[in-house]
Amino acid sequence: MMHEKSVKLIVLCLMLTQCCLSPSATADSSFEDNDFAEFEDFDSDDDFVEIQQSNVGPQLSTAEEIPTLTEKGLKRDHSILEDDDDDGIVEDEDEFFKDEEEFEGFDSPDKEDDDLDQKTEPKLTVAKIPMHFRTHWDSYWMEMLMLAGLMVYFINFFAGKAKNANLANRWFNTHRALLDDNFVLVGDDGKMDNEKNGLIKESESLYTLWCSGRTCCEGMLVELKMIKRQDVVSLMAGLMRPQQDQIHIKIDLTRGVMDTFVFFVGTKRTVTKVFKEYSDLSKYCTQVSKPEIRYNVPNGLSVLSEIPEATSAILENRVIITLTKYQQYIDYLHISDQFSGPVQQEDANTLKQPDTKPILWAGFNLPREGNMEAVKPLLVLIFYLMERLKTYRMSKEGKQKAERNRLRVEEEFLKSTHAARAEAAAQRREEKRKQEKERVMAEDDPEKQRRWEMKEQKRQAKKKAPKMKRLAVKSL
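The structure corresponding to this sequence follows.
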C-alpha cells in the first residue's frame, strides 16, 4: 500500500517537472482545447507579434517573397475553416491588406503610387523642324528688297514734295509785283479772309492762285501743275514720255467786252487734242493751213480760226515777236466768246443749249532749270491780250459771218433735239387737258360738263380721221 502511494507521488513529480521544462507542449495542448486561448495569454500587441513570428517564421525581406507568404496565409485560413481543431493563425495587417483576392477593388499604396507615376509621366514630342530653315541673311533677301523699296519711296516722296513747293513759291515770288499792279486782291480764294495771301496747295503737285479786282474780267485763276515728283511710278513713266511743269491761266472775261469770235493757237499736238475735246472749237473753228505763211506764226504752232479778220487782229506784230521768242515755253492760247466746256455726249433729253461764257485761257511750260524770270514776259502778254480784246471791234461783214455761224449751230441743235422737244410739247398739252377736265368735273354744272365731253369727242374723232388733201379743179 505504501509502495503504491510512493509510486504515484514519483509519477506526479515527474509530470510536474516535465511541465516546467516544456511549457510549449503545455501550450499546444491548451490550444487544442481552446482555439482562442492564445488571445487570452497576450497582454500587448508586441507579444502577439513575437508569437506570430515564432510560429510563422522569419519575415521576408524582398517584395518577391510576399506572394508566397500570402499563399501560405490563405492555405492556413482554409485549413482552419475546414478543421475546427486546427490552431488559428493571425497574419500581419500589411500583408493581409495586400491580398487582392481578399479585398476586391482595394488598391495598395504601392500600386497607387505606380499608377500615379504612369499617369503623370509627361509625353515628350519632338518638333519637326524643316531642314531648309537657316539663320543666314540670305534667307531674307525678299524682305530686304521690300524695305529698300519703301525707303526709296519715302525719300523720293519728301524730296519731290519739297522741290515742287520750292518751284511754286519761286514762281509766285517772281510774279508777285506784276500781279499786285494788275489786281486788287491776289491770293484770295473767295471762301475766307486770308491773313497770308499766296498760293493754295491743292495737292503735292498742284498749286492754285486766285486774283480778282480788275476791269475786263471777273477774275483770274492760276494753276501750277508740277510733275508728280513725289510719285516714283510717275517719274518712271516720265522716262518713257517726258513731262514738263506747266502753268495754266484761266480768265473769265466780262460779257460784252470782246466781239463774237473763237480763236486758238498752240502746238500741233495740243491743237489736235483740244479740237476734239472742246465744243466751241469743234463747232465754230477750222484749222488754218500753212499758218506760218498766212499769219507769220513760228514753225511748230498751229492755228484754229473762226473769223480770219479777228485772227489777223490778234496775231499782230507784237504778239508774233513774243511767240517766236518764247516758243519753247508756249503750249496754247485760247480766246472764245462761246466757251461751254468739253464736248457733251448726245442726249435726247437735252432740250436747252449749254451756257456759254467769254474766256481767255493760256498754258505755258515752266523752265526746267527753275529760272522763273524767263517766263515773266508771257504773263505780260496775257495782260496785253486782255486790253486788246477790250478795244478790238470787227467789221460789219465779220460780225454778220459770226452771227450766221451761231444761227447755224443753234439750228443743228434744234434738229438734233426735235423729237425730244415734240414729245415734251405733247406731254405738256396732255397735262393741260387733264387739268382742264378736273376743273370742269369739279363744278356742279351738268350742261357745261356735257359740252366739254362733246368737244373732247370731236377732237378725238378728228385725230383718228384720215388726213385728206383738198384739190381745186378748174372747169373748162
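Confidence is low (pLDDT under 50) at residues 22-33, 36-88.
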